[in-house]
Amino acid sequence: MQHDDVVWAIINKTHCSHKVTTKTQHFCRNEYNLTGLCSRSSCPLANSKYATIREENGIIYLYMKTAERVMFPAKQWEKVKLSRNFEKAIYQINENLLYWPAFIQSKCKQRFVKITQYLIRMRKLKLRRVKELVPIQRKIERRERRREEKALVAARIDNAIEKQLLERLKKGTYNDIYNFPQMAFDAALKAEEISSESESEKEDEDEREMELEPELEKELEKTVEETDEFIEANSDMDSDDESDSGRKENVDVQSDFESDTSDIEDMAVKMTSRKKPRVEIEYETEPIASVSRKKIKQ
């Protein structure tokens, strides 16, 4: 049988591997300790009847030890899973520790409350977005930069060699001796076709512009000529009117002619008064005068 007083006397006065001494207090590092303090009531080694609460992977368990199972270390601690519901877990603790000391019952409940609280805080922290500090490895970055630069240089050399080989194949220097990949040859041909199409489009646009320029010049010349002709015609008519009006002729004109001319003049005045833009009306009096002369001779 285990003698608790003897065990405690040895642990308290001599060395204990779980004991941590400070200037003010003694602590216990045993994982089954209920309070974390090194004392007679809370020591798991010096008490044959002992209970504690532990958490494993987010699940809380009640561990109980009795004197009957001390001789079997593998079966020494009885493990009871507690419910996630707080009230049900407290009920389980009270039911399993019904005839146990009041100190162990109260300390088990306190430990259960603390464990549930820090589990809740852990779940909340996991749901939050936390900034992680990532160390910068300078040597690896330099190594990667050098490799990238070397790869770029190698790629440029490969492209230049590929272009030269394609040009030689087009010229027919190899005479179908080497087997060159058809994909690269087709890609080069497509690139050349696109460039030739763009050049032909530019040439077509230039030709269209060159064709349109003489047509525009001709239209401008026509408009200038029409305006010149219109001005010259007006000047000729004015000169003819002035020459005719400057001459004096003794001609007998009938009253009908006077009425006709007066009507025409009235119409011209009305037309000019109605319309704002300038309107020129031309009428001849010479043929009427010649007719009246023939009548007088007869």
TrEMBL record:
Ribosomal eL28/Mak16 domain location: 6-118
Cellular component per GO, a single term: preribosome, large subunit precursor
Keywords of this entry: Nucleus
Biased composition (Acidic residues): 194-214, 226-243, 255-266
Lineage top rank: taxon: Eukaryota
UniProt-annotated stretches for the region Disordered: 191-276
Biased composition (Basic and acidic residues): 215-225
Signal sequence bounds: none
A GO BP annotation: maturation of LSU-rRNA
A Pfam family per the record: Ribosomal_L28e
Location in or out of the cell: Nucleus
Family label: Belongs to the MAK16 family.
Protein name according to UniProt: Protein MAK16 homolog
